[in-house]
Amino acid sequence: MDPAKSLPTLADVRDAAETIRTAVLRTPSVPALALSAALGLDVVLKLETLQRTGAFKERGALYKLASLNPDERRRGVIAMSAGNHAQGVAYHAQRLGIPATIVMPLGTPFTKIERTAGYGARVLLRGESLTEARQAAYELAAADKLVFVHPYDDLRIIAGQGTIALEMLADDPDLDVLIVPIGGGGMIGGVALAAKALKPAIRVVGVQSASFPAMHHVLHGLAVPASGQTVAEGIAVREPGKLTEAIVRQCVDEIVLVEEDTIERAIEMLLTQQKLVAEGAGAAGIAALLADPEPYKGQKIGVVLCGGNIDARILASILMRGMVRSGRLVRLRAEISDSPGTLAKVARIIGEAGGNIVEIFHQRLFHDVPVKLADLDVVVETRDIAHVREILAKMDEGGFKTRLLSNSALESGL
């Protein structure tokens, strides 16, 4: 069957909106004042992070579940997901009294596994990737006669996700651009289809991790990488849907790829400047603006902040790495005499210069230094790069030859 002949329509999206109206939050679109000022852009954020399960996936999941007949509801459903689709299906299946089984890849963040199980679903970890998890889910669906709820390549799933566009354009009819993360394409498929039907001139831009560029590569006739690592596991899809590919070809103006460090910076920026928590996939749209803001100057930009389910350990690591990138956390190495009182003198100099010592490593044996000397590695919290320069100058004045370690970007600016 030709996928283009069975695509959802604006009428389907509107029917989805009415079906899910009382059970899915109509999330706000808010001006991102801090981000807009930092980027020199006019950015509006669609806060799908406020959904009960922390992501947009509830929309399509509920529209699909609501379509099941009594026999299908009795038999139950099965889904494969890296987390957000899993939670959306599990939560609404529990509400509707439908048994749910969720198959997740082995590397799924703990927080998504725990929350999915907390909504009453049976969670099974199978395979290293979504592709392997999907195959396991298909096999279980056939064996146990369960209804398979696809995370993206399903007419009702796509139509449900398209309700995001209805709300965004109702709140901000003057939007010039919509920026939407892409995994398998369910969200951008629904959003682009609805947005172009309502406002043909609007520009729709998709964003993928450079480590998982499946939709981008398929559309450009390129080979899709077999593996990769990304903090945006919610869009780490190696094979886009057939329905979604057809919609993207018709309705999406451009797909941009963003690197991992840019996604990390976007997560950090959203939290520290906009006071919003986003997972990697959720921050992908902001990463696109960070990577290249020029194409969006002078336009009103709507960005879908599609999910906030980030592992606490990953978030903590990203914030600390952000401090290192900005020079607010540095590691200094000083050559000191191995004699009483020297360590105290170093600590006093750094303290008087306003630095906060976080850790100290005193190396006598493993570095190539004379026996009467030692290398002192000091991790210091600072205000900014200028403050780092000040501390280094004070250390030199105090007789301690000191250099900055393991941050080439900062070293080039000192």
Report on this model:
Residues 331-407 form the ACT domain. The protein contains 17 helices and 14 strands. The longest helix has 17 residues, at 155-171. It folds into three domains: 3-56 and 154-320, Rossmann fold (3-Layer(aba) Sandwich), CATH 3.40.50.1100; 59-148, Rossmann fold (3-Layer(aba) Sandwich), CATH 3.40.50.1100; 327-413, ACT domain (Alpha-Beta Plaits), CATH 3.30.70.260. The chain has 414 residues and is an alpha/beta fold. Helix content is 44%, strand content 19%. It has helices at 10-20, 33-39, 58-66, 70-75, 84-96, 110-118, 130-144, 155-171, 186-198, 214-219, 242-251, 260-272, 284-291, 312-325, 342-352, 385-397, 408-413; strands at residues 29-31, 42-47, 77-80, 100-104, 122-125, 147-148, 177-181, 203-209, 254-258, 300-305, 329-337, 356-363, 373-381, 402-405.
